[in-house]
Automatic annotation (TrEMBL):
Residue segments, region Disordered: 1-27
Protein name, as recorded: Transposase
Top-level taxon in the UniProt lineage: Bacteria
């Protein structure tokens, strides 16, 4: 039996699951104040 047929039987669908996603935001958001402070007046140009 092919792996596609197995997927169809197990999940009812052969389409791939969603991949990864963005994972760095929470770490960056946790340090927002420090980042903006380090940028100083340059932060306004972004």
């Amino acid at each position: 039996m092919s792996r596609w047929r197995v997927l169809e039987r197990e999940r009812g669908d052969v389409r791939p699951k969603a991949l990864g996603g963005e994972r760095k935001s929470p770490r960056i958001d946790a340090h927002t104040e420090a980042i903006l402070e380090a940028l100083g007046s340059e932060a306004d140009r972004c």
